[in-house]
Amino acid sequence: MNRATSPAYCHAIDIRVYYEDTDAGGVVFYANYLKFMERGRTEWLRALGVDQFDMARDLQRCFMVTELDVKYQKPARLDDLLHVESRITRLGRASLNFDQKIFRQTELLVQSAIQICCVDTVNMRPAALPTLVSKKLQAITQD
């Protein structure tokens, strides 16, 4: 489908780094960036009116990460305020691709390309995005 290129399609949240997010040296443990990005995608969907709990319960559909490419450029530290940006880059029949970046102020710390697949919660196999979700996503990815 079409690529969403306008800044209007970018969603952002701020996340504070807590002690539990860091290693013994006060640096964010690498896997915790994945949690920060998950929160970013979840809030992005929530802002579009997509409730993942309701989608799983009522439509037997959920999202799973199927591909992940992460580049760690600089470390975040205890008490940093991070800015997580999420942007959809591709919309498929049963999948979404996201570009996500994590900043400390204007300094890029992490960038990623993530593919999310919609799956049937009963058999855990790929399934088409629910119609309502697909329509919401198509509305923001039109050129």
* Run of helices and strands: EHHEEEEH
Question: What is the CA-CA span between the terminal residues?
Answer: 10 Å
Note the overall shape.
elongated
CATH superfamily: Hotdog Thioesterase
| Rg over CA atoms | 16 Å
Any descriptors?
Thiol Ester Dehydrase, Chain A, 143 residues, five-stranded antiparallel beta sheet, elongated, alpha+beta
Q: What's the arrangement of secondary structure elements?
A:
Elements: E1 10-16, H1 30-47, H2 52-59, E2 61-72, E3 81-91, E4 95-104, E5 107-120, H3 131-141
Antiparallel strand pairs: 1-3, 2-5, 3-4, 4-5
Word description of this protein:
Keywords: Hydrolase. This is Acyl-CoA thioester hydrolase. GO terms for molecular function: fatty acyl-CoA hydrolase activity. By secondary structure, the protein is an alpha+beta fold. It has one domain (7-136): Hotdog Thioesterase (Thiol Ester Dehydrase, Chain A), CATH 3.10.129. It contains three helices and five strands. It has helices spanning 30-47, 52-59, 131-141, and strands spanning 10-16, 61-72, 81-91, 95-104, 107-120. The radius of gyration is 16 Å and the shape is elongated. The model is unreliable at 1-8 (pLDDT under 50).
Quick synopsis:
The protein is an alpha+beta fold and 143 residues long. The chain contains three helices and five strands. Strand 4 and strand 5 form a beta hairpin.
